[in-house]
Amino acid sequence: MTAAGYSVVGVTAVFVATLAVGAYGWRFSRTTSDFFVASRTVRPGLNASAIGGEYLSAASFLGVAGLVLAFGTEMLWYPVGWTAGYLVLLVLVAAPLRRSGAYTLPDFAESRLESRGVRRLSALLVVAIGWLYLMPQFQGAGLALASTTGTGPWLGGVLVATVVVVNVLFGGMRSITFVQAFQYWLKLTALLFPLLFMAAIWFGDGAVSPASAEIGDGGGAGDSWVSPLAGTQHEVYTTYSIIIATFLGTMGLPHVVVRFYTNPDGAAARRTTLFVLGLLGLFYLLPPVYGGLGRIYAPDLVSSGRTESVVLELPARMVAGTAGDLLSALTTAGAFAAFLSTSSGLTVAVAGVISQDVMGRRFGGVRAFQAGAVVAVVVPLGLSLLTEGVGVAQAVGLAFAFAASTFCPLLVLGIWWRRLTDVGAIAGMLVGGGCAGGAVLGTLLGVAPGGWPGALLAQPAAWTVPLAFLTMVAVSLATPRRVPRHAARTMVRLHTPEAVQLDRSTPPR
Amino acid sequence: MSETTPRRVRVTSPRTVAARAQRVPPAREIDAQTLLGEVYMSSLLRSQLRLALLALAALAVLVGGIPLVFWLAPELSEVEVLAVPLPWLLLAFAVYPFLFLIGWLYVRAAERNERDFTDVLDRS
Q1: N or C end of chain A: which has fewer CB within 10 A?
Q2: Is the dihedral of CA A302, A306, A308, A309 positive or negative?
Q3: Do A488 and B121 lie within an 8 Å CB cutoff?
């Protein structure tokens, strides 16, 4: 059997296993609550594996190693930020968000601010961020399948989209929870197992430091590869902007937030998040090592600009013969687990919002959710086939900066500040989202100037996030008469432990 | 003689009803948004917010300070610990246990705050 053959077998196995594990969950999926939030009965251990499985996307599995290979230590800020984002989420948002008792982000916005306008804007932003994040998943799937088996670049995306739709159609959140928990452990194994062999070979070769490896043109060498500061100009600003976008953007991603509603109570939500912190830390130890070893054993990937496939190709290059091909097939299978799990989570989140806010009146319950799932997948799949060339890491970075500038202020101020008003929230989200979205779109389209303005536009989070916070606070203070009537009561519900017998019903409008 | 005997009167204290006045459970004070309920809630909110800000400050100083330190002292990038460059050691390995530690301490303290709050409500 050829190397491509092994990869086809590996990818097929992941697809079949995903559908089989999903089918196990189908049997339990009966009610609308099952479909949206798995009836809120998922235990912390299982839920944390599911969150980890969902969160570790193509950018984590393929992107990090590729970025480290090309640019060096500074790119480690991405995995560090994606993990620290969960710490910020744990500290500021986790338990109150679960206690709010809402299904989705727009639900939270509406119940806290008692306004349909905030709800509509949040729904729009959830769909935008979700599609922005789904697009690179489908694109990455196409690239991965093309580079290992030589098929057309569209096939991988279509396959992933189909499997996701089938699973979501039949099982909703209940079945997705099992699928994603399984995929976390699959991804961890797929990176760890080949690494054991490769590390042994590296030690056998005398353990050369990756920093000293000579790389032709196109990559940072020696000193600049080791430096933890990004780029060569405005390095402190760029590094801190990446830190702010990733630390604060995590809480605003729709597929991350929707998971908190599946916990039984606020304390469980906190413990789940702590578990996730551990699982992410464990996983992120691995991809940078692939990047480092890639500098020694696959330096040609840098000059040919294919650094994102280092995880897929490195095992076959380092381990001789069939064993190497098998290990490469394993990492390819793991990559597809990453595409599938992240797209499943995003699809559930976006479908929930579409079915509730766009179609809610015409269809009801489960039917609307299923129709929403189809729309949630078809649009970004079409976009990913039309717009090739926007890198996986770039699109994901845009999603984080965008989420940090819109939902982060809404959640933080909504949970901790009683005087937030609906007008303030809308103004803050429009200003933050408008600036962040405009800046990165400008960079992607190539109309950004050089120098300082260019640096400000390429990594906008460091100024758009404070701007969004300031706008939200200033406009709220200027409209004190619009503070929601039941704000005090809502705050009580967000922060009181479940053990206290409170009246938790929705206040009358 | 019997004519002059006063009728027997049962003497009862009118204060018994007052002494056994209905106690209002503190949870209802919170629901009714009385001044007392407000005091309970703002004490919980303030202690949880202080804890959250403490955790964020630890994160900001100890992890967020790394780029600043390396910018001010670039020669630190040259330092190697067990043949691993210092920046790499910090960002690829050492950060993760540290993040987990902050999270673990936070969860413990937050649950203690909530337990104290519930105890106060139960006792009063």
Answers
A1: C
A2: negative
A3: no
